[in-house]
UniProtKB/TrEMBL annotation:
Annotated source species: Zygosaccharomyces bailii (strain CLIB 213 / ATCC 58445 / CBS 680 / BCRC 21525 / NBRC 1098 / NCYC 1416 / NRRL Y-2227)
Residue runs in coiled coils: none
Signal peptide start-end: none
NCBIfam families with a match to the protein in the record: asnS (TIGR00457), PRK03932.1 (NF003037)
PROSITE patterns, sorted: AA_TRNA_LIGASE_II
Stated name of the protein: Asparagine--tRNA ligase, mitochondrial
Length: 467
């Protein structure tokens, strides 16, 4: 026999003879002849209703002392079906003095109450906010998404790998590295070698893909981002996939699209479990979120345009004063306002933008055969409404001479930290490519909360707290 049931198990199992549960008080309502406790235990967005008939005054002291936030255990409760109510059953406790025990008290200052709190308020309580229905649901949603991603890659015959997080190279070449600091004894870092926290595990994944054909990983990545926006974190989780023998960049986008759709499908299958019951005003209501999931699956293929086409579309719109800050110009990176407009206003759908100018992207991307002056690379970004870029990937330059030339053009230290990477092109090299997806960005987008700080339990950013 189990020592106690979780809330999630009780909803799944159905009627039980006697039930023991443990959890936290969401709310208590004390009436003349009965008291109702709403109990949550964090395993589900649902709560348990516990009904306590009051036959005499003996349990009153106990019931009056029960407060939102306390942890309690309840033993030998009876299962009572309530088919006409919102919750299909409740638990009846006849002898509360014997059956209910307070395990952990709260102070009078306990800040979370049964009502819906604003996100702004919840964010001021990094150590407590996850107990709110909304934030708790967001973490369960994230856990579900991670499992759905793993299932997708397992089905597609990708091997899950574990690349290092300490590295000597700047994969993206953007200089946003956190340096591993020196020990007190040494003037240099990490046992005398220049070492950083990884910004992307891609370079190591390329080596692994050349051994395993298809691999993927989910790791923390670190970027000393100065931009403190609702889509940037200094520590975030990236899903990266890398595989050999894709035909072209369109094959990469197809895998990315199928991956996101597989996640969305599994979210829809479990929507009753995943959607929060108490949603702050500033967040999207449940119907809108579910509708978005359905729309994402409904459309056959998300649109794909080239960067050059994107600039043409944006330039027409720019004439109408849509982007007062940044004029869209061939050769410049797309700004987040451009990305959001393209996906949110123009296509009203996720959209793949391919073939960016070489100088907008990283050194490892495969060069296209373009006319001079308009050099592009075989890459893509996946843009979604409200968020802009959620994923980016490319075919990798597998031509040794071109890779070396590009690294030299960028004045990179090719012979030092990256000679192993360059050497991969000499030993059984193969056409390969892949992408990286920001997990918090995907979670926020799917969940309808456009601030990625809520999609990670304890967020790290340039100006945030660090507890
Ligand atoms: O576009 P990025 O920089 O691409 C790479 O790092 C490639 N090496 C990935 C690959 O091909 N294997 O980052 C990939 C994704 C972005 O699209 C974005 O969603 C997310 O990672 N990302 C961030 N998310 C939160 N905070 C940040 N500071 C992020 N920087 C990138
Ligand atoms: Mg990118």
């Amino acid at each position: 026999r189990r020592s106690y049931h979780t809330v999630k198990a009780l909803y799944q199992l159905g009627p039980q003879q006697e039930v023991d549960v443990k959890g936290w008080i969401q709310s208590i309502r004390l009436l003349k002849k009965i008291a109702f406790i709403d109990l949550r235990d964090g395993t589900s967005s649902k709560t348990l209703k516990i009904a306590i008939p009051i036959r005499d005054s003996s349990p009153l002291d106990l019931l009056k002392s029960i407060k939102t936030g306390q942890s309690i255990s309840v033993s030998s409760a009876q299962w009572v079906p309530t088919p006409h109510r919102e919750q299909p059953f409740e638990l009846k406790v006849i002898d509360p003095l014997k059956r209910i025990q307070v395990l952990g008290d709260v102070t009078p200052q306990y800040p979370l109450q049964k009502k819906s709190h604003t996100l702004q308020f919840l964010r001021t309580l990094p150590h407590l906010k996850h107990r709110s229905n909304y934030m708790g649901s967001l973490l369960r949603f994230r856990s579900h998404v991670e499992l759905a991603l793993a299932t997708f890659f397992q089905q597609e015959h990708f091997t899950k790998v574990t690349p290092p997080l300490l590295t000597s190279s700047d994969c993206e070449g953007a200089g946003e590295l956190f340096k591993v600091d020196s020990t007190a004894a040494s003037a240099q870092s990490y046992f005398g070698r220049q070492t950083y926290l990884t910004v992307s595990t891609q370079l190591h994944l390329e080596a692994l893909a050349l051994a395993l054909s298809k691999c993927w990983t989910l790791t923390p990545c670190f970027r000393a981002e100065k931009s403190d926006t609702n889509r940037h974190l200094s520590e975030f989780w990236m899903l990266e996939a890398e595989w050999c023998f894709p035909k072209d960049v369109h094959e990469l986008t197809l895998v990315a699209e199928n991956m996101v759709k597989a996640v969305v499908k599994s979210c829809l299958e479990q929507k009753d479990e995943l959607i929060p019951h108490i949603i702050p005003e500033e967040c999207e209501p449940a119907e809108i979120v579910v509708q978005r999931w359905q729309n994402l699956l409904g459309s056959r293929c998300w649109p794909t345009i080239t960067y050059t086409e994107a600039i043409e579309i944006l330039a027409t719109q720019h004439k109408k004063q849509a982007f007062p800050k940044y004029e869209p110009k061939w050769g410049s990176a797309l700004q987040s306002e451009h990305e959001k407009w393209l996906a949110g206003e123009y296509f009203k759908s996720p959209v793949f933008v391919t073939d960016y100018p070489r100088d907008c992207k990283a050194f490892y991307m495969k060069q296209n055969d373009d006319e001079a002056g308009r050099e592009t690379v075989a890459c893509f970004d996946l843009l979604v409404p409200g968020m802009g870029e959620v994923a980016g990937g490319s075919m990798r330059e597998d031509n040794l001479a071109k890779l070396v030339q590009e690294m030299d053009r960028r004045q990179m230290n090719r012979k030092g930290d990256l000679d192993w990477y360059v050497a991969l092109r000499k030993e059984g090299s193969a056409p390969h490519g892949g992408y990286g997806l920001g997990v918090e960005r995907l979670i926020s987008y799917l969940y309808g909360n456009h601030n990625i700080r809520d999609a990670i339990p304890f967020h790290r950013s340039a100006t945030g707290t660090i507890e």
